[in-house]
Amino acid sequence: MSKVRRKESKEAIVCVQRRVKRWQRPFFLSDGNLPDGNLLAGLTGKNTGDNMLDTNLKHLETEQEVKEVLANNENAMICCGRMGPMCIPVYGIMEQLESRYPHVAFRDQDFDIPAADFIKQLPECAGFIGLPFTVYFNKGKVVAATTSIQDRKQVTQILDKEFGKPS
Predict the structure, then answer these.
(1) Contact between residue 115 and residue 66 where contact means Cβ atoms under 8 Å apart
(2) Is residue 52 predicted with pLDDT exceeding 80?
(3) Which residues, in sequence order, are bridge partners of residue 141?
(4) CATH class (in words) of the domain with range 58-163
């Protein structure tokens, strides 16, 4: 990040560097652009393209899909976030645990789409500040909700308590 070849973007990047902590800085290619060419996404952490998370989980893109998952699965874990440093570890944990907990539907949802309002507006998420919002449902009812990064032990404790240990 010390050298940027494009002068027009150098000033904007320097300005942002002063306001953003080092671990929050975006990754840039040698020409000063992000790998996908989207400067705004890297600076804000928001997904500005197709609003699709880059995970191996099944994605929920509409409120109808959320309702179908809750209606068709007794147990569900929905992680609503972005592709940022606090969210990516939770997605990874979910991907690892998906095969161990076949009785739980693991889903992700982009925080910046209109359908995410379903999760954001739950009373259990009212005081949440950090991403991701992770909500655990049993028979369509919220049984647990967490905010910000979680480690594998924390996630498995909730899954075991609310949905039972895997057989």
Answers:
(1) yes
(2) no
(3) 138
(4) alpha beta
